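Re-run with default settings, no changes from the original entry. Doing this only to confirm the output is reproducible before filing.
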Amino acid sequence: MTTPLTCRNYIDGQWLSAVGGSTLESSNPACFTEIVATFPRSTADDVNLAVAAARQAYRSWRKVPAPARAEYVFRVGELLLQHKEELAQLMSREMGKPLTETRGDVQEGIDCAFYSAGEGRRLFGQTTPSEMPNKFAMTVRTPVGVCALITPWNFPIAIPCWKAMPALVCGNTVILKPAEDTPACATKLIEIFAAAGLPPGVINLVHGVGEEAGKALVEHPDVDLVSFTGSSETGAFVGATCGRTHKRVCLEMGGKNAQVVMEDADLELALDGAIWGAFGTTGQRCTATSRLILHHDIKEKFTAMLYERTSKLRLGAGTDPNTDIGPLVNANQLQRVNNYLDIAREEGAKVLIGGKIANEGALKNGYFFQPTILDNVTPDMRVAQEEIFGPVVALIEVNSFEDAIAVLNNTNYGLSSSVYTRDINRAFAAIRDIEAGITYINGPTIGAEVHLPFGGVKNTGNGHREAGTTALDVFTEWKSVYVDFSGHLQRAQIDNRTEQQ
């Protein structure tokens, strides 16, 4: 075991303990007796300090030219590259996923930095003809103000980068409130932002629990925007609060994603996608494959293939290079998944493999759950409708492509989707008819790239998208500008054509 890290808040360029002095601990989910870090249990007092610092810094930061703001973010990317392995090792210890995945998490932050930095020279507005002579019309982007970023534990580097980097390039100042399960990762990330030379107050970090620090941020009158990633239940509260207080809000919430495997699919390829989509990150992704919708003609064969591959998956600590599936993040999540297995059995689903907490031998001090396949699942069962967020996949049988799309769409979520088929007509029909923000053809439901929009429909989000150029629409306001060089009054929206004659 290593000595626990001491994390602090980062406010106005200074590392500070909580005003009240209270602290919390994060532990290694593969060995919960190992304390990874202590961190401040912040309250509204700490949030007030951070918001005041961000508000003060915004006055000057918004006037820094966008290409110059982007250079800071580019330096963050270079530093992330230098510290990639250190961050990956820490992430595996603090939230549990294997090193192959944590390295990918950091790489996503690096990619986001370099992509966002490029946008500093592409914050395009538009020019358009005026309806009147000797008048120029254009639009420009302006920053929103102080942005609160509330992020989850499953991607503790990538998701804060997704939010903070475009926000900063657009001229906003930010306050990051990370999940209480991953304070050390957030601290190391903000250390890198600080090392890149960002002025005091431009980026701030406030640790704590959601009901205290997070709630205070969402409700603070001097916060102009809240970008939240987490559960749909918490997102509903965030959205309602922001609506009531006239804040801009971006919500990225849950999913109940499905992979369709048709009778003409490449079954080996579909199997690779199903294993990675269902059990990658121990199923703790909003894009995880929770449902496998299988055509009747290949259902028996594909189920046998899935069973065999799943039986060979190895549970263990994320820092062990032989591990395929790491632990769930904490005791509450472990119990949540276990409860859903009770629900599945009560509803009549058949547990083909797994279905139990794994706590023997080297796994006894961790939050491990066996990779699980549920068969005989019908579309209306709770395990086919509700987000489990664990290594559990439900098999649903269909008789046609049309049935498969109907079942896929039959949830309150709409984040990611996948269809395996060799039929080009089916592929394009799926792209047209699936109700989701992301559709993969012959690929798994997980694997977003930073230059494409990320987000979903229905209870998954509120219409905004993260990543890609669409993130700029979250973190900027549009301003219309008119320049009249006619030398006399011209009246738009009046009968100006008669006047011109």
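Residues 5-253+461-480 form a domain with the Aldehyde Dehydrogenase; Chain A, domain 1 fold (CATH 3.40.605.10). The radius of gyration is 24 Å.
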